[in-house]
Amino acid sequence: MVKVQRGVYALGHAELRREGNVLAVVLRYGDAAAVSHRSAAALWGIRPWSGTFIEITRRGPGGTVRQRGRIIHRCIDVPDDEIVIERGVPTTTLARTLLDLAAVVPTHHLRRAVERSDQAELFDLTEVQRVLDAHPGRPGRRPLMALLADYRDHGDTVTRSDLEAIMLQICLDHGFPRPQVNRYDGIRESDFRWPDHRLIVEVDSWTFHGRTRRAFDSDRARDRALLREGWRVARFTDRQILTDYAGIARELAALLAPRSLNDT
User: Fold this and answer.
1) Which residues are within 8 A (CB) of 246 and not within 5 positions of it... i.e. 6 or more apart?
2) β pairing state of 189-194 and 180-184
3) 167-190: buried (b, 16+ CB within 10 Å) or exposed (e) per residue?
4) Is 182 helix (H, G, I), strand (E, B) or coil?
5) Residue 191 contacts by C-beta under 8 Å, 6 or more apart in sequence?
6) Phi, psi of 230 (to 5 degrees)
7) DSSP 81-132
8) What's the sign of the alpha-carbon dihedral 216, 222, 225, 229?
9) Is 207 exposed, middle or buried (0-12, 13-18, 19+ CB in 10 A)?
10) DSSP code of 3?
11) Can you tell me the distance from the alpha carbon of 135 to that of 141, in angstroms, rounded to the nearest whole number?
12) Calpha distance 135→133 (Å, rounded)
């Protein structure tokens, strides 16, 4: 046997799969521990792995403790029915994971997690509401409830990247008119569209846009076609969105401002 954690051993070798390493950390903290928060979201497949730490919740008082390669959340309100076995690892249920996640990630990351859970047919609104009702004092309750209220009022606005989720959140945070997101008009699809303002906003990532000459030329030809049809097109890069939240908000405010007759 090979030691992989204090009191935890592997048979034959210590080169474990990711789930095996996560399980070893959970076992290190005993029967009252489970993977939670960002690590649980990764196990459920609704968030990428961070690769830098594993988050564990264990029953008991004491708050949150950061150790090398792990974050330990000590919590007294983790009932048995909020822990399941996922990929062979004790893990908080999806509903409890979303509640915990809401306390530690930005709103746009939470939106992406809910979107992914819905697309994977894992999301159960009744169960999420039950967990919310059972934990009125949890830090993530308010942002998760706000997001669910937004879903009820506007439906499932599906973004396709964290960048799109950030852009949508900028609009919501600043009270801008709500855009159509990834809407197909019968000819083309746009990232964000405001028909009343004849405005289209595209979010350009180096990973997904413009890496080839053909893509670069296609985007510019598309913009010219939209201009001929009376649309204004604004493009924001991933770097701009990630580093200049306030600047993006100011530009959107100007683009969405009422236009005078001299401007038309």
Assistant:
1) none
2) antiparallel
3) bbbbbbeeebeebebeeeeeeeeb
4) strand
5) 164, 167, 181, 182, 200, 201, 202, 203
6) 95, 15
7) GGEEEETTEEEE-HHHHHHHHHTTS-HHHHHHHHHHHHHTT---HHHHHHHH
8) negative
9) exposed
10) E
11) 8
12) 6
At position 262, the amino acid (one-letter code) is N
Cα 159 from Cα 235, distance rounded (Å): 17
- To which residue do tokens 């028909």 refer? 195
Return the structure tokens found at 70.
């792990």
Residue recorded with tokens 């209220």: 149
Say what the pTM is.
Answer: 0.82
The tens place of each residue's pLDDT in the chain, 264 residues long, gives 445 455 444 444 444 456 657 877 888 887 789 999 999 999 999 999 877 789 999 988 878 989 888 899 999 889 999 999 998 899 999 999 999 999 999 999 999 999 999 999 999 999 999 999 999 999 999 999 999 999 888 887 889 899 999 999 999 999 999 999 998 887 889 999 999 999 999 998 765 554 677 777 788 888 899 999 999 999 999 999 999 999 999 999 999 998 644 454
3-state secondary structure of 133: helix
Confirm if 191 and 164 have CB atoms less than 8 A apart.
yes
Look up residue 260 and give its two tokens.
């005078």
Dihedral over alpha carbons 216, 218, 223, 229 (to 10 degrees):
180
